[in-house]
Write a structure and sequence with these properties.
Arc Repressor Mutant, subunit A; four-stranded parallel β-sheet; 42 helices; globular; 10% strand; Rossmann fold; five-stranded parallel β-sheet
């Protein structure tokens, strides 16, 4: 009998003792340890065989802590159902029965509402017991405080408490759950008291009528006071009478008392002892702390991720296919915003996938790693819980998970992270509403513009617009960069035509609007209403410009936009906060260049193309004194300064000092950049016109611009260098030409000026890259590779500098004779290495192989000292990953005198040997000593 059959027979024996009544208190099942121990098989082998039985559909796997297994045939017998193909890996027993026979639902004992909460048997077990006690405590429950950081689900937990109270009969089914956010009225204590308690006529200025409060409306139910720490002390004190004796008074009442039987639940992110009155806290005996996401078990996070994808599939009514690496990233990334952020990130990624689904007519919404923002993608590089992840995802044979719209009904979280269905729907619905009310065209226009403005503010808050984040990073989670770039082009033209500037929030709104429109076009669900254009004609200037915007968007996005859309676009252009625009200040820009007309010519072109006069210039004839130029520049800086500082674009390094001198003389923040060309000036002025631009960020952006930006800005202009003598860039690899060739391809694709400057790329092995083998050494420009061949007077750039540093820019400057030998490394981009491997490797998964090889390197560093950690690490990773591919296809390198190398490097050899076990096991290869010899050479030559 095989080991697998022994395992299955033991599982069958254990499950044979289970009956329907055993389902009442917990989900039955047996973990791998228990099954294995009974027949003397260790846990790892037991787990492996049980997972194989699940794949064969002879057992089901119930995820949790611990993971449980159950005989599938026995489960079908107990419940009287036939298991579906997708029901052999489940989060709970309810997942199995929810879409099967109704008889099974009737047979299964009912669980209380809290059992549907992910983590009910784990991290939330204590909190749920407290909540049940608070609801059931006689005669009417205990007032409760829910404490925990933002995003842990306090509002959802309060809803569960309400549902449990209804389920157990503690409150009537018609009783209300009222949610009130104290922060919304925190600046007006009188108003917050009026909202809660109501008021009598004349209670305060403006109280012309009596008004009932939330307490009166919630009588018999539960009142949730969210952000209760924002409730003023007088508000807390007014609740004393209600909490003690179930009576209260409206604001302004002195003699009359009213009766209300209410259970209070407060929610806060703050320390209750420092934010609430001691006398108030004494009246709230139950304080429940909800854990952060980082405190919860990884299996719970896994279940939450799957639940949220299920919710999104139902929401968009389309199947969602999520690749396994995406699940891994979501499990491992630093999710500081807890469950709220996790759900929000999943919604935003799904929205990007949904856009592709609609745009390209895909069968499924596909979510792969290309849709992940950098902070989420970096989760794949987190090694902390790697083994736990492998254990968790091991049974999933497929490369992706599939979530379908139909299926079991899961509890949906209530929070503020849901994505709006789009500005298009908002405008349409409001238009129809006000039309039916009989409003005039002018009045409808005013109303809709008001809704647009409020909606835009909501978008601004949602996408963190205005905060110092990488430009458009948040927006690109949901709006395609292609759409946003088209909108940017259209808005720039609109600004010129209307002679006013539109803020970032208007760009966001129009981009969202266009994205929603493209979805409707794909579904052939265009809403046509000529009345919209008639309304928009109340603003003729915006209407005429909207026609132009429509044409630009059609050309840029290759779509046909209905003419009725002109009205919507016109209203968007009109709905601009004019007060903010008037107050908008810009960074001043001054171009300083030697020559009689150089600077003014650049400024004229920039101003003409961008339809502005923002770019100023000072021409510097060679015979004019520097002191005179400084005085002229100082006066011009004073004129153009609007309070956000001034940027000087200068053509010679000696003029850099102008910025510091002028700052001291005028107290104006002046910065300078030693970089002048028409394309750069266009980019600078364009950024300065954006309302969110800051001088410091602008300087950083310009310093990062590559020398060939002109080719990016003016795509159709091609410069050809008239250089007859070719120059050479050598790429090297310690083991041969394999990696050297791939590195050459990377340089070819990354530096577009190679052909223009007649540069030849020569991949070479280390043995070839020697003085003796190079006849044309005088034409060699630079050597790039994993190891320095030490060619006399030839500069060397290590491969790590190309991948995560400033190597590409340095090579470009060398080609043009402008190398400043600057060192501007950015060491915080580990995903660059993965991207490089993606280009280098032929068939291996770059993320998988990187994780394993990186771990191997860390083991080595514990045994030996490494001087240049970064350079050595990157060389090791790239070399070893390429070696693994060679060994998989049985391509091995020879190494002369390997015995001598091992004998001369015993410590390094043993360190490498002990580190490669995981590599060999993961990829089912054997790494011979001849390959280890090259790794030894790699460490010795760094």
């Amino acid at each position: 009998m095989t080991r697998k059959e022994k395992i299955y027979n033991e599982l069958k024996r254990l499950c044979s003792k289970i009956s329907l009544k055993d389902f009442k208190n917990e989900i039955p099942g047996f973990d791998a340890t228990e099954v294995g121990e009974r027949i003397n098989i260790d846990r790892s082998n037991s787990s492996k065989e049980l997972n194989q039985l699940v794949n064969e559909k002879r057992a089901i796997k119930i995820l949790g802590r611990p993971v449980l297994f159950f005989d599938s045939y026995k489960l079908e017998e107990i419940l009287g159902i036939k298991l579906k193909d997708d029901q052999f890996h489940v989060d709970s027993l309810e997942d199995i029965i929810s879409i099967n026979d109704k008889n099974a639902k009737e047979k299964l004992p009912k669980y209380n509402i809290f059992n549907r909460f992910i983590g009910s048997g784990g991290s939330l077990e204590v909190a749920i017991k407290q909540a049940k006690a608070a609801i059931l405590y006689p005669p009417r429950g205990l007032h409760t405080l829910l404490v925990g950081p933002t995003g842990v689900g306090k509002t959802t937990f309060a809803e569960m408490m309400y549902n449990y109270a209804v389920e157990t009969g503690q409150i009537d089914r018609n009783a209300k759950l009222t949610i009130f956010n104290c922060s919304e009225y925190a600046e007006n204590p009188q108003l917050i008291l009026s909202q809660l308690f109501g008021h009598v006529k004349g209670a305060f200025t403006g109280a012309d009528n009596e008004k009932e409060g939330l307490i009166e409306r919630t009588n018999g139910g539960i009142l949730l006071l969210d952000e209760i720490h924002r409730l003023a002390p007088e508000g807390q004190e007014m609740l004393f009478l209600l909490m003690d004796k179930n009576i209260y008074r409206r604001l302004g009442e002195t003699e009359t008392t009213r009766h209300a039987n209410i259970l209070l639940i407060g929610a806060t992110t703050e320390d209750v002892n420092s934010t609430l009155l001691k006398t108030f806290l004494r009246r709230i005996p139950m304080i429940i702390r909800l854990p952060s996401l980082s405190e919860r078990a990884l299996i719970e996070r896994y279940q939450l991720i799957k639940q949220f994808f299920k919710d999104q599939s139902k929401s968009i009514q389309a199947p969602i296919m999520v690749y396994k690496d995406v699940i891994k990233a979501l499990l491992l990334y630093n999710c500081q915003g807890n469950i709220g952020q996790l759900k929000g990130d999943i919604q935003l990624v799904c929205a990007r996938g949904f856009l592709d689904y609609k745009t390209y007519g895909k069968r499924n919404v596909e979510i792969d790693t290309t849709l992940l923002p950098d902070y989420l993608y970096n989760g794949l590089l987190n090694q902390e819980k790697r083994n736990e992840i492998i254990d968790l995802l091991y049974p999933e044979n497929s490369e992706y998970y599939e979530f379908k719209p139909k299926g079991n009904e899961e509890f949906n979280f209530t929070d503020e992270y849901d994505i709006s269905e789009g500005l298009y729907k908002e405008i349409c619905s409001k238009y129809y509403y006000y039309s039916e009310k009989g409003y005039s065209h002018k009045r409808i226009n005013e109303k809709i513009n008001g809704h647009i403005e409020r909606y835009v503010k909501k978008l601004q808050k949602k996408f963190n617009v205005g905060k110092e984040i990488p430009e458009n990073q948040e927006l690109f989670k949901i709006v395609s960069p292609r759409v946003y770039n088209a909108v940017e082009t259209a808005i720039t033209v609109a600004e010129g035509k209307l002679k006013k500037k539109f803020s970032k929030k208007v760009r966001v709104a129009l981009a969202m609007h266009v994205s929603a429109l493209m979805e409707r076009i794909a579904e052939n669900k265009i809403i046509v209403n000529s009345e919209i254009n008639k309304i928009a004609l109340n603003n003729p200037n915006e209407f005429n410009v909207a026609r132009i915007v429509k044409n630009i968007l059609e050309d840029e996005l290759d779509i046909s936009i209905p003419k009725e859309e002109i009205g919507f676009i016109a209203m968007l252009l009109y709905a601009v906060d004019e007060e903010n625009i008037r107050e908008n200040k810009k960074i001043g820009v001054v171009v300083l260049a030697h020559g009689k007309h150089t600077a003014s010519s650049i400024a004229d072109v920039v101003n003409s193309l961008l339809d502005t006069d923002h770019c100023k210039a000072i021409d510097m004839p060679l015979d004019e004194r520097v002191e005179t130029i400084l005085d002229r520049t100082t006066e011009l800086v004073k004129q153009v300064n609007q309070g956000k500082g001034v940027l000087l674009l200068v053509d010679m390094g000696s003029l850099i000092a102008f910025a510091e001198i002028i700052t001291k003389k005028t107290n104006i923040n002046v910065r300078s950049v030693e970089m002048v060309s028409t394309p750069i000036a266009i980019e600078v002025v364009r950024k300065c016109l954006l309302p969110e631009a800051s001088l410091e960020q602008l300087v950083k952006d310009i310093q990062r611009i590559t020398p060939h930006i002109g080719r990016l800005v003016t795509k159709n202009v091609k410069m050809k260098a008239s250089i007859s003598q070719s120059r050479i860039i050598i790429t090297t690899c310690i083991t041969g030409k394999g990696t050297a060739i791939k590195l050459a391809k990377l340089l070819k694709s990354s530096i577009p000026i190679l052909d223009e400057y007649n540069i030849i790329l020569k991949p070479m092995s280390m043995n070839e890259a020697t003085i003796h083998n190079l006849n044309d050494i005088e034409n060699i420009l630079v050597v790039v590779g994993s190891t320095n061949p030490n060619l006399t007077n030839i500069p060397y750039i290590p491969i790590d500098e190309v991948i995560v540093g400033d190597g590409l820019r340095k090579i470009s400057l060398m080609i043009q004779g402008e190398e400043k030998n600057k060192n501007m490394y950015d060491l915080n981009e580990p995903n660059f290495v993965v991207k490089m491997l993606n280009e280098t490797l032929i068939f291996l998964n770059p993320i998988k192989v990187y994780n394993v090889v990186n771990h191997s390197f860390e083991i080595i560093t514990k045994s030996i000292a490494i001087t240049d950690y970064r350079s050595t690490k990157l060389s090791f990773v790239i070399h070893t990953c390429s070696m693994i591919e060679r060994l998989i296809i049985n391509e091995r390198l020879t190494y002369n005198n390997i015995e001598d190398t091992i004998r001369n490097n015993p410590v390094l050899y043993n360190a490498i040997k002990s580190s490669i076990g995981e590599v060999e096991q993961t990829f089912n290869i054997e790494i011979p000593d001849t390959e280890i010899g090259y790794i030894i050479d790699l460490f010795n030559t760094q």
